[in-house]
Write a structure and sequence with these properties.
By secondary structure, the chain is mainly alpha-helical. It is 85% helix and 0% strand. It starts with a helix and ends with a helix.
Amino acid sequence: MSIIDKILGWVMVALGVAHSVGTFALYKPLNRNAAWFFGSGVALVAVGMLNLVRARKSDAFTRGCSVIANSLALILTVAVLWSLGRNVMDSPQAIAVGVVIVLELIFSAGK
């Protein structure tokens, strides 16, 4: 299971990088919404990196921080999905992020 945990961590990092880089394609000119969009990608990168650290060296503190970070990321993702309403299928990347976060939350809470 550890290899799946590490792969999911890297997937989360990649999704966060794509989200941040996508800011420059989606927002012209850059504005406050672009900053929040970019920051959400950076947060995904940070949570993904924390999951990678936990997957390699799992002490109680790291696991606890990982559970908290994944929980907060999940809350944010649920809020985004909720805000999309019926248009949720127009943003499959948000669903993919949610699935990865749920799986990483399970890994971080289960050890």
